[in-house]
Structure to design on (863 residues):
């Protein structure tokens, strides 16, 4: 009997193959259920009118397999399918369903388009009214195939003949624009018609020239122009191609968006909007004027490495309350990131004001934490009948919204909150018998969604929203379990490498924008800069992508060598600006770096940890000399750490939970020191009633430090504490996302008075990685989860847990439940993988692919 077909192949880390920027994209597929493992495969490539097969290749590889032919050329389209051989089958499987891949514009010479925008005077330091640009053109006959390659200086939304192209938001996203500006490829064949056609685009400032950053923000960070770069290529059935590219023949006019900013919000005057503006029949075309053309190095235009930002969910309000003065207060029941869509009718000139906030204070929107991100959208009605509207070029972080000026009674069905984030594929799930822990996990998921908006930001609501390196460094293990974020983080790490200073310094946040006086000029800082070494390694472990590790290796190496120079012969990094255990709950609200742990202890510990991981990466990449050198360096730093920071009693010079957690988790102690240090860590935790006493550095490490050193019960007590500060305190206070501070909302209901009081900040949610591995029980023991460990360690009264992760090879799952005689466990090992299972009280057991039902009572009897 032949095995059924494998899954369709996927390309790189992309959701589809249209417009790929890699000439030789790697291929991944999963095996059909019940096949066990692959011993051989064959690929079939159909391109250029011919079919080529590789023949049978003896290999078990099925993740990121090399491209089977010559590199693709620009615009070239191919289909790929695979069949596999498994050990017990009589022959190969059925062929997979064909998957299409199409190259984007791979060569700078392929681009004819130039940036085009409004040619009128603007105040570069003030709010500028966004323009729209358009172009009329004709097609003499039906299009056989049409592609739009498009990007912008700023933000864009394109229409062809009045129909929206694509569904992404805030395109093209935020990269280090001078070096990398993403373009996207759209199949627009169905948008076109024989005869007259019109292509047009809305433009917005976005990150490119909008006001962004701290203390009032900075305008024009990347330029003063607001421009579209678009190239429409129409192919006919005879093989000829017609080009419609942005050039001086396009036209521009002010649009009905009066103002727009990522922080400020958007104002839209419907009286100024002609819905047919991007059609050949548009009225008022005399208002359109010739565009101003600009310049762009086409060599900096790059295809995406991951999915775009999209609306992924719609949430209706759970309550609508009318205030005495006619305002409407809406509670959506969930802190989220997105914008409101309203359907409303009223007289011309009626003005609706939409305000947003994460929490209430004294029954009103608490806007102080937003600082200078005003988050106000304004809609002016045309009087032309019912209108459905939402802003285009802004996002807000909010649970609550206030609407003023609604012309009648507002009902819940007239307003929807639309949730926006990078449209990553969900890959991880967890639940257990404790509903508070389940809500905590959901809060982690929602915070990740709200902050993975094209890049990993710290918070989504106030005047910041930056790609902080330290936040994602600690959260990447959790993120890569919950969602397939390989493409997004690979792209962002590319920008980290671009922004790395010549001496090896990694910025505090990427892309870099002005941050005086604290963040500019840039200083090297532990935990933040270590994103260069630790996050590529995490992604390699989770996705098995050796080339990703190779691409970012020079950045990691430059970082470690910088710290080596700063530490000098002592191997102690005990100088410079350090954030230490940022936001230790004992730190003053106005000085979050002033925690209980010596910041140079933290810096030296991370030096050792990064050097060790650089050695591991070098070994995987077969850089043997580097591997030996950095392993020796790591050992030298660990020895220096012990001499400086470990007392003869095995106590640390900083007698804090974070100090012990980092020393234990980073393996910086001798075997004789580990036991006393772990005992002291447990003592510290229990002496404070199992409340949290760690910040950004210690929090992701403390549960593992306890669990792996004989104090699992204390880790559970820490997890399940509900008094402030603790993870579950936030849940009992109604949190639906992770807070920046443990007491962002204080027990008496007042807001933390500090200037940093975000209610959506994923970093402290890094504990979810421990939930997945220890409470749930699934962890990878080989890159890409080719080998897995199923080892649940129950405690804290939790009687059952279920965890599932879609690995590159397929779904891994574990569902366990305590019984009167021990534990039962249902386990799924992905096809092509192997696993070790270790249930409480039982010897380790090797399992192959498939579903397995185990009972410790039976396993113990068998032993």
């Amino acid at each position: 009997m032949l095995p059924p077909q494998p899954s369709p192949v996927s390309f790189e880390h992309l959701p589809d193959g249209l417009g790929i920027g890699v000439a030789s994209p790697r291929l991944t597929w999963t095996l059909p259920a019940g096949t066990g493992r692959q011993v051989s495969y064959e690929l079939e490539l159909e391109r250029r009118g011919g079919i080529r097969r590789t023949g049978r290749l003896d290999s078990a590889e099925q993740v990121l397999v090399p491209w089977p032919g010559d590199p693709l050329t620009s615009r070239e389209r191919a289909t790929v399918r695979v069949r596999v051989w498994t050990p017990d089958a009589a022959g190969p499987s059925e062929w997979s369903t064909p998957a299409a891949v199409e190259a984007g514009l791979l060569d700078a010479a392929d681009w004819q388009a130039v940036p085009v925008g409004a040619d009128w005077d603007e105040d570069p330091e003030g709010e500028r009214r966004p323009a729209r640009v358009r172009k009329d053109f004709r097609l003499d006959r039906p299009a056989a195939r049409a592609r739009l390659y498009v990007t912008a200086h700023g933000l864009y939304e394109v229409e062809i003949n009045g129909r929206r192209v694509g569904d992404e938001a805030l395109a093209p996203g935020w990269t280090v624009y001078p070096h990398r500006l993403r373009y996207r490829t759209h199949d627009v064949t169905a948008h076109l018609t024989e005869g007259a056609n019109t292509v047009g685009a809305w433009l917005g400032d976005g990150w490119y020239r909008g006001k962004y950053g701290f203390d009032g923000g900075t305008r024009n960070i990347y330029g003063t122009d607001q421009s579209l770069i678009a190239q429409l290529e129409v192919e006919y059935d005879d093989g000829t191609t017609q080009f419609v590219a942005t050039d001086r023949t396009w036209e521009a006019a002010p649009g009905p968006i009066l103002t727009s900013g990522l922080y400020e919000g958007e104002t839209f005057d419907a009286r100024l909007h002609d819905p047919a503006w991007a059609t050949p029949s548009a009225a008022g075309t005399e208002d359109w004027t010739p565009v101003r053309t600009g310049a762009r190095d086409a060599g900096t235009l790059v295809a995406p490495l991951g999915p775009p930002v999209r609306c992924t969910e719609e949430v209706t309000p759970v309550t609508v309350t009318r205030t005495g003065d006619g305002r409407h207060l809406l509670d959506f029941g969930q802190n989220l990131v997105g914008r409101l869509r309203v359907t409303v009718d009223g007289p011309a000139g009626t003005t609706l004001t939409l305000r947003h906030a994460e929490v209430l204070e004294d029954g009103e929107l608490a806007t102080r934490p937003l600082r200078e991100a005003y988050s106000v959208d304004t809609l002016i009605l045309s009087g032309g009948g019912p209108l459905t509207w939402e802003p285009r070029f802004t996002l807000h972080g909010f649970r609550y919204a206030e609407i003023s000026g609604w012309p009648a009674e507002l009902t819940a069905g007239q307003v929807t909150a639309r949730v926006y984030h990078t449209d990553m594929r969900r890959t991880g799930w967890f639940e257990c018998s404790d509903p508070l822990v389940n809500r905590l996990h959901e809060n982690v998921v929602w915070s990740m969604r709200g902050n993975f908006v094209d890049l990993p930001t710290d918070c989504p609501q106030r005047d910041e929203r930056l790609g902080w390196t330290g936040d994602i460094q600690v959260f990447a293990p959790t993120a890569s379990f919950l969602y397939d974020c390989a493409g997004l983080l690979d792209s962002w790490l590319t920008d980290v490498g671009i922004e790395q200073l010549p001496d090896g310094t990694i910025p505090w946040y990427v892309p870099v924008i002005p941050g005086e006086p604290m963040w500019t000029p840039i200083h090297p800082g532990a935990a933040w800069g270590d994103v260069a070494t630790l996050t590529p390694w995490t992604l390699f472990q989770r996705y098995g992508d050796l080339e990703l590790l190779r691409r970012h290796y020079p950045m990691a190496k430059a970082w470690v060598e910088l710290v080596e120079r700063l530490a000098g012969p002592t191997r102690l990094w005990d100088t410079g600006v350090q954030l230490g255990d940022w936001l230790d709950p004992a730190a003053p609200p106005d000085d979050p770096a002033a925690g209980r742990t010596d910041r140079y202890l933290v810096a030296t510990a991370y030096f050792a940890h990064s050097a060790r991981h650089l050695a591991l990466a070098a070994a995987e990449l077969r850089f043997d000399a580097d591997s030996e050198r950095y392993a020796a360096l790591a050992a030298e730093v660990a020895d220096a750490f012990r001499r400086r920071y470990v007392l003869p009693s095995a106590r640390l010079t900083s007698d804090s939970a974070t100090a012990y957690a980092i020393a234990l988790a980073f393996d910086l102690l001798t075997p004789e020191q580990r036991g006393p240090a772990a005992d002291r860590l447990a003592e510290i935790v229990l002496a404070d009633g199992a409340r949290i006493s760690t910040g950004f550095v210690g929090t992701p490490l403390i549960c593992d430090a306890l669990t792996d050193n004989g104090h699992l019960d204390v880790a559970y007590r820490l997890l399940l504490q509900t008094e402030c500060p603790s993870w579950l305190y936030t849940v009992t206070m109604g949190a639906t996302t992770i807070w920046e501070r443990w007491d962002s909302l204080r027990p008496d209901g007042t807001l933390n008075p500090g200037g940093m009081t975000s209610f959506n900040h994923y970093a402290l949610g890094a504990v979810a990685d421990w939930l997945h591995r220890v409470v749930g029980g699934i962890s990878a023991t080989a890159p890409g989860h080719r080998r897995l460990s199923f080892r649940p360690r129950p405690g804290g009264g939790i009687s059952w847990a279920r965890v599932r992760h879609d690995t590159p090879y397929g779904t891994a799952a574990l569902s366990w439940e305590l019984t009167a005689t021990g534990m039962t466990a249902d386990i799924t090992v992905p096809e092509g993988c192997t696993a070790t299972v270790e249930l409480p009280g039982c010897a380790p057991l090797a399992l192959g692919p498939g579903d397995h039902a185990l009972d410790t009572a039976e396993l113990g009897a068998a032993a």
About this structure: The mean pLDDT is 96. The two ends are 36 Å apart (CA to CA). The chain has 15 helices and 45 strands.
